[in-house]
Automatic annotation (TrEMBL):
Residues 546-581 form the EF-hand domain. Residues 91-197, 254-366, 422-522 form the DM10 domain. This is EF-hand domain-containing protein. GO terms for molecular function: alpha-tubulin binding; calcium ion binding. It comes from Paramecium octaurelia.
Length: 616
């Protein structure tokens, strides 16, 4: 018998109540796993399984019953509880009540009792309550935490604790034989009670005691009636400034400026119309007059006609400021109306306009609608400065930079085009067009770089021709003499003529890459789009009685020998006889499209079907 079995059953089975058996000698543990013939096996000597004859019979007849023997009862609360416990449902939810209790004061002639304010917190998660007392300066009593957070019983010695239903406004509540009066609560608490169907009563007013009245009387300071005058006197005596009587006006109208457009007609010999801007500052009723500068006016740039100051209607001029005792009358917003004249120290200025803020201010504050006056428009002076001719250094953009600015900047390049089109180079075989007969036989390779629209020309040579091959023209941008614009990829069409400086070239053929590039861009190379070429051919059918007669005439003129195939010369000669003006590039792509055998011969059957003819 073990030592633990000798202990009485009333002792709980907890740490500290169970001791090891000093008489036990065998501490072996049962080995359940073993290794037999290289296989891990489990011993079943200690496993007892009940024999079920019904299960054996069902397994013999291949009809196993329901092994669970009945459906499982659904749990009341799963790991995701349907009925939330209070600690989950009311997590961080706290009800707050404001209250007080009355405490008697002895041996004090000024007061017999004191009202001590408290705040009662009720935690809905576990039903605990704690009470705090706000600190009052110079109260003479310890304040702060009054009752620690705990469950408070309704009566001492019993397990009946306060719940949130037991707390109501305008009622007394007993915490440990001390009676508290609940006076008010916060908004969340009132909404919670209304949601639960138990609305709270209306709050009542907090009573006052003599201590609070005396404390407010001590803190109340009443200045003597002449304090302001004394402060101003001592401030000026110590070197300070005079009191600012317009401080309130400054704070209300700071950064509010009325702007007017005025004009002064200088009637002197060398005078002219002068335009100014009058700014009226509402913060201190001062004005400034700024000159409106115009380019190439021939006048020295004076920014201000009058610095910021008050403008008198009739100025009193003295040898020294302050020598007169007369009071001057200054301009106010009521005097500055569009269409009126303002006299600024002898200069009569006409107000002909104002800004949008000034219009809104007059309309909303003064009830006056500002209507700008119309002035006669002056004829603008046009100055023409011719652009000097190109000096030959660099590109024309570089030369124009020194014309437009004293510190020229390099011209901006199309970086996006350079990155996306730099790998595309269009190569054409061309011949020179010249008045000299021998030079017409010279052949060239023209390379157009799509990244920066530059052109490079190489000359090819044949044996015993007497012509040196190699680079004919450096890579550079060239201008079209017809349009005076730089050449673009749109200008390079088969059969077209391009001119670089004084040399003219006719584009004869293009490489395979250039042909495919033209096909991929039908919006740029419209003459390379076979659909547009076919549509253009169909337009010539308008001169025939019907479309079939057009097709028959076209086939007879192109294929006169009825071979079924024609070469490029027969195609050009037939279109010329018919009067169909197709360009060389259109004829070239038409020939490539219907060349079925790769022998550079056009299949008439394919052309017939593409134009809409019926198959034979």
């Amino acid at each position: 018998m073990s030592l633990n079995s000798q202990f009485p059953k009333q002792v709980p089975f907890l740490p500290g109540h169970v001791f090891s058996d000093p008489f036990k000698e065998n501490h072996h543990k049962t080995q359940q796993f073993s290794h037999i013939n290289g296989t891990v096996q489990e011993k079943t000597n200690f496993i007892h399984e009940e024999f079920d004859p019904n299960l054996m019979d069902s397994m013999k007849f291949n009809a196993p019953p329901n092994l669970t023997y009945g459906s499982r009862q659904p749990p009341e609360n799963d790991y995701i509880p349907r009925i939330q416990p209070p600690w989950l449902k009311y997590d961080r939810a706290v009800l707050r009540f404001y209250g007080y209790f009355q405490e008697s004061v002895v041996e004090n002639p000024n007061e017999n009792f004191r009202i001590r304010k408290v705040i009662i917190y009720y935690y809905l998660s576990d039903g605990t309550i704690h009470v705090t007392e706000p600190r009052v300066p110079n109260a003479g009593i310890p304040q702060g935490l009054f009752i620690k957070r705990q469950k408070i019983p309704k009566k001492l010695g019993k397990n009946d604790f306060y719940q949130w239903e037991d707390i109501q406004l305008c009622s007394n509540i007993n915490f440990y034989e001390r009676v508290f009066r609940i006076q008010d609560c916060d908004t969340y608490t009132r909404e919670f009670y209304e949601y639960m169907g138990k609305p709270l009563r209306l709050p009542e007013q907090m009573p006052r005691d003599n201590f609070e009245n005396i404390r407010e009387t001590k803190e109340l300071k009443i200045n003597p009636p002449d304090t302001k005058e004394y402060k101003e006197y001592f401030e000026v005596k110590l070197g300070g400034g005079h009191p600012n009587g317009g401080l309130n006006k400054y704070l209300q109208n700071d950064r509010k400026v009325l702007s007017f457009d005025i004009i002064w007609d200088d009637a002197s010999i060398e005078g002219q119309l002068n335009y100014y801007t009058l700014n009226y500052y509402l913060a201190d009723d001062t004005c400034e007059v700024k000159e409106v500068r115009k380019q190439n006016s021939g006048k020295d740039p004076y920014p201000l006609m009058l610095r910021r100051q008050k403008i008198p209607k009739t100025p009193i001029l003295t040898h020294y400021p302050g020598m007169t005792l007369k009071k001057e009358e200054f301009y106010s917003p009521q005097d500055l109306i569009c269409g009126n004249t303002v006299k600024i120290y002898g200069r009569e200025c006409f107000i002909y306009g104002c800004d949008d803020f000034t219009k809104e201010y007059y309309l909303n504050v003064l009830g006056i609608q500002q209507k700008p006056a119309t002035l006669k428009q002056e004829r603008g002076k046009k100055f023409y400065q011719p652009v000097p001719p190109y000096n030959g250094y660099g590109y024309e953009e570089d030369s124009l930079g020194s014309v437009y600015s004293l510190q020229p900047k390099p011209p901006k390049k199309d970086v996006r085009k350079n990155f996306t089109q730099d790998q595309f180079i269009l190569r054409f075989e061309a011949r020179q067009i010249s008045e000299v007969r021998e030079e017409n036989s010279r052949r060239f390779i023209i390379s157009f770089y799509c990244g920066d629209d530059t052109v490079q020309v190489y000359q090819t040579s044949e044996r015993n021709s007497g012509i040196w091959g190699g680079k004919f023209q450096e890579r550079s941008r060239q201008k079209n003499p017809l349009t005076n614009d730089y050449y673009t990829e749109r200008d390079f069409q088969l059969g077209g003529i391009v001119q670089f400086n004084v040399y003219k070239f006719q584009l004869m053929r293009a490489d395979e890459f250039t042909i495919n590039y033209m096909r991929q861009k039908p919006d740029v190379f419209k003459e390379a789009d076979i659909s547009q070429i076919i549509a253009k051919l169909r337009l010539f059918a308008d001169g025939y009685p019907n479309f079939d007669s057009f097709l028959l005439d076209l086939m007879k003129k192109l294929d006169k020998q009825l071979k079924g195939y024609i070469d490029f010369e027969e195609l050009s000669q037939g279109l010329l006889e018919l009067g169909f003006n197709l360009t060389l590039q259109e004829q070239y792509f038409l020939m490539r499209e219907f060349d079925r055998n790769g022998e550079w011969k056009l299949c008439m059957q394919s052309l017939w079907e593409s134009l809409g003819g019926k198959r034979a």
